[in-house]
Design a protein that fits this description.
Structural class of chain B: mainly alpha
Helix content of chain B: 55-70%
Mean pLDDT of chain B: 89
Radius of gyration of chain B: 17 Å
Shape of chain A: elongated
Order of helices and strands of chain A: HEEEEEHEE
Distance between the termini of chain A: 65 Å
Distance between the termini of chain B: 36 Å
Strand content of chain B: under 5%
Oligomer: heterodimer
Radius of gyration of chain A: 22 Å
Number of domains of chain B: 1
Number of strands of chain A: 7
Structural class of chain A: alpha+beta
Largest sheet of chain A: 4 strands, antiparallel
Low-confidence stretches of chain A: none
Number of helices of chain A: 2
Order of helices and strands of chain B: HHHHHH
Largest sheet of chain B: none
Mean pLDDT of chain A: 86
Helix content of chain A: 10-25%
CATH superfamily of one domain in chain A: N-utilization substance G protein NusG, insert domain
Largest interface: A-B, 21 and 31 residues
Strand order of the largest sheet of chain A: 2-1-7-6
Number of helices of chain B: 6
CATH topology of one domain in chain A: mini-chromosome maintenance (MCM) complex, domain 2
CATH topology of chain B: Arp2/3 complex 21 kDa subunit ARPC3
Shape of chain B: globular
Strand content of chain A: 25-35%
Low-confidence stretches of chain B: none
CATH architecture of chain B: Orthogonal Bundle
């Protein structure tokens, strides 16, 4: 027996309705907004705000040395950091709004921001 | 031998429910054994049994079979009264309610596939709402809605087709076990 023979006319309708529902819900995947900017902070103060459309490199000075941050279209990462545990480096690329890499020993952070902010402030 | 005061007579209906629930529990175990990329995305094979029971024996029997399946399945898999149990219970309750309404749709136009898809969407909808209200009180839960909805559509269709095939191949008179 062929599978299509098991489907009745209304079944196609329900399947189309389900597909429409999936389609409508798709924007929820991007509800945080698109990654637009990277905010680099040094000692709590904004050191630089970079547009995530072009390539940039930043050398951010801190108490331990220089934290090297790379910005690429749509993403950002900490390339090198003088901190002992390298957590922020190992986080790799950040691409979603709200994502943040914190190099605490060197007091440097890089955060991805979209149009809407997920929260007002972050303290550490 | 002392005759028990409460005499439980086991009817044919009881036996049928027990058999069907066993089949559903078996499929739940198969379900749990299938690796899933995301918690919550499962084929829900036991719903095939629910659909067949609904069509053959009516809604009340389907409620019994589903209820027993959730209970026994959670006991066997070790998540009885854990969050997963309540997610399962909410999803099942909502999809049974949906099936209770959807079975009145004209059978000429809407077959098991329609019922299966509607039940799958109700199931995931109920789970998402419970997760939002209780487990993760943050709207971030809904971020994965498209993934869950797509899974509901795909698995709902497949399960519905399997149920339709089973119903088409077994004569209505024989007990569909």
């Amino acid at each position: 027996m062929h599978w299509a023979a098991l489907l009745r006319p209304g079944d196609w309708l329900v399947m189309a309705g389900g597909a429409a529902l999936v389609w409508i819900s798709l924007p929820l995947l991007w509800q945080g907004g698109f990654a637009e900017r990277a905010i680099i902070r040094q000692n709590g103060q904004v050191f630089a705000e970079a547009d995530l459309r072009t390539r940039h490199d930043f050398d951010v000075p801190g108490p331990l040395g220089t934290t090297h941050i790379a910005i690429e279209p749509g993403r950002a990462r900490v390339v090198a950091d003088p901190g002992p545990r390298q957590y922020c480096v190992r986080q790799g690329w950040l691409a979603r709004p709200g994502e943040i890499a914190i190099c605490a020993p060197n007091r440097v952070s890089v955060q991805i921001a979209g149009r809407t902010k997920a929260y007002d402030s972050l303290s550490y | 031998m002392t005759v028990s005061v409460t005499e439980l007579t086991v009817t044919a209906e009881d036996r049928r429910v027990a058999w069907l629930a066993t089949a559903a529990v078996g499929l739940s175990l198969v379900d749990a054994a299938i690796p899933s990329p995301l918690p919550g995305v499962k084929p829900g094979l036991a719903n095939i049994v629910t659909l067949v029971v609904l069509t053959r024996y009516g809604w009340a029997t389907a409620v019994w079979v589903s209820g027993l399946r959730v209970l026994a399945g959670s006991l066997l898999l070790g998540y009885f009264l854990a969050p997963g149990f309540f997610l399962s219970l909410t999803g099942t309750t909502l999809s049974l309610a949906t099936l209770g309404l959807a079975r009145h749709l004209p059978a000429r136009w809407f077959g098991p596939v329609s019922l299966s898809i509607l039940a799958a969407f109700a199931h995931i909808g109920g789970q998402l709402l419970l997760a939002r209200a209780w487990l993760i009180p943050h709207n971030g839960v809904f971020m994965l809605t498209p993934v869950f909805a797509a899974a509901a559509l795909v698995f709902g269709t497949i399960n519905g087709l399997i149920a339709a095939k089973l119903l088409a191949e077994t004569p209505a008179a024989a007990p569909a076990k």
